[in-house]
Structure formats: structure tokens, C-alpha cells
């Protein structure tokens, strides 16, 4: 049995969604979501060097959507350009609400929870129209806070985070943002909730656990070599199974060949896509830099049912980013500028701007999602004549909703043994 445990926290924002839409509109929205996901991921890879990486584009985009509802002027225009759509459009809102409704469906084999809270400084008056829109979004709650009392506010954030993340521990909410949350090693001078000038903070959480439709067996896991980007090799627990999956071979714009494998979860509403350069000498960065929304979309039509031997390492990772240094690179700059930000659609208070935007994401892939013991049985596997997908070197992964194509999480595994936070 294999479970995936993922969680993400993003400070500042959330979304809107759609219930009845024609296929062309849904396809267009899916393309826009994928475009944002790829753009966000590629922006982060520019500063993350050769480390493991996990980010939730859905969490970030839905959060920016909530900001967009209260933004005006050029601030709104920048958010619309980054996302590719305006959430004030009724049709877009209906689509996003429908998307979120689908994401919120739980079953015995899959669990996905999303929630949002707007922590508001006591005395700040929000516009009725904005609070009504916020209340219509999934699991959005308004919480009065006093940011001049950091310990009390931190306690509020902790309690909310535990309640809305299935008791996951959120270091960001617990105060670790006073350390390194930039994702680039740069220390932060103060935690989000410090300071007299903070007027509001919006916290968004996304958490997922899933069970593979075809489960891996612990008895088939062996310690096998994994080649790192510098050419050295380490031994890691490598899961194995022989099964029929969706598999395809593709080429980048520069004719670099790579393969894609899809592993669905129970009930096939979500799946994990793995992309691996075909040539062992081709670095993953060649694939990352040339990844496009059109290529990701082509995977749906280019995958074929194939009987395969699959080798996939267990991996667990966590990333924290200060998006204040990331989003301006993607064109969202006014929102963080005290003199340029225009959020007059949120409150009558003047001078509102985004002081900080934090994002945290986690992932764990194992046979059954438990903290597996270090000792694993060594078994002799019978080799079939089926083709082999062996993720024994750096690879890319995407966790997507199958019906919409929306990317919930995207990341890469550079070193399965590196579990540093």
C-alpha cells in the first residue's frame, strides 16, 4: 500500500470556482492553471540549485485569486496577468468553485483538505462585499487578531493550522518563519505576525493523502543505487512493482528525449506523473528549463497503457518559500509595494499591502504512508521482458486532478535520502 502525504501553507490569500462550464472553457482554464504552475516552478528552480523541491501551484494561485477580488487598478492588472484570468468574472468563479468542490471530495483511498483563514487586526473594517465573497469560498473563516501581541497571534495560527490540516504540524505557523523561509538560505528578520503595522494575514492550507490504485509491496523494496546530479551514487530504498500503467516517450524543443509515467490513486481522481530524462547523461535541468504547458498537456494524449517494471524510490521532502521574492519575478510587484498597492476592494483602511507571502509544501511517498522501519527485506526480483521505468536519478513529478488537469503539486527529487527541512 502506498500513500502520499502532502501539505502546503501559503500566507496571504485564496480562491473562487466554477460549477457548470463547457469543455472548451474548462480546457482553457486548465491550460492557464498549468501555465501558472510551470512558470512558478521554473522561477523557483532558478534559486534552488540542485536541491529537492516541492510547491503547490494550486495553493498559490487560489490565494492570489482572493487578493484579486480586493485588488484594483494596476495591482489587479498584474494579478490578472500572472494568473491569466480575472476571478471577478462570474464564469471563472463558478469554475473555480466547482474545481474546489471536486478537490474536497474524500474517500477511503484519497483525502484532500483545503482551508483559508483571514486574520484581521482588531479595528480594521472590511468591506461587506469582500467578506461576502470570502465567505463563499471554501472553508474561509474570519479571525480577529492583535498583531501587537505576537505570542497570542501565533497561538491562534497554530490552533487553526492543526485543526485544518488533520493535526499536521506547521512550523511556519508555529513561528519558524523567524528563521529561514526564503528557500534561498536568507534569514528573515521577523516572523509574519510581528509588528504594529500588520493589518491582516491570510493563511491557506492544502493537505493531501492518497493510496495507490496498484499498491507497492514492502517485500519488494530493496536498497539500490541512485545517481545524484554530480555523478556520485548513493543507496536508497527503491520500491518495485510490475504492473500496467500509462507511459509515453516525448521530446523537448531541443530534441532531448524523456519518458513520462502516470501512477493513479484509488478511484482515479488524482494521479502522480513522473518525468525522467531518457539519456542518463542528460541533467534534469534540461527538461526543467524547456518544460511548457503545451508539453504537459500533450502527456494526456501521448500516454499509452503499457506493462512495465517500475522502480521508484521512497522520498520525503519539505520546502518553505518567501514568495515576496518570487512573485515580483512573475509580474506581481505592486501588491508588495506600500505606495503602489491598491486593495481598496478589501477595506476602507488606506495603505493596505502584502507585507509577506509565505508558502510551505510537503510530500512523502512510501509503500503505505507510514514511517517505515529502516530494515527492509532483500528479495530477488524476477525480471520480466517488459520495459523498465527506473527512477534511479533525478526526476520531476506532478500531482494532478485527472478530470481538470489542474496541478496540485509540482516538484523534483534530486536526492531521495535528503529529508532536510
CATH secondary-structure class of the largest domain: Alpha Beta
Supply Rg: 21 Å
What's the total count of β strands? 15
What share of the residues lie within helices? 25-40%
Taken from the alpha-carbon principal axes, the silhouette is elongated
* Biggest sheet character: 9 strands, mixed
Task: Give the count of helical stretches.
Answer: 9
Distance between the termini: 26 Å
At the fourth CATH level, what is the homologous superfamily of the largest domain? Antithrombin, subunit I, domain 2
Average pLDDT across residues? 78
Q: Specify the structural class.
A: alpha+beta
Order of helices and strands: EHEHHHEHEHHEEEEEHHEEEEEE
Low-confidence stretches: 4-21, 175-194, 369-383
- What is the second-level CATH architecture of the largest domain? 2-Layer Sandwich
Approximately what portion of the residues adopt beta-strand conformation? 25-35%
CATH topology of the largest domain, anyone?
Answer: Antithrombin, Chain I, domain 2
Whole-number total of structural domains: 2
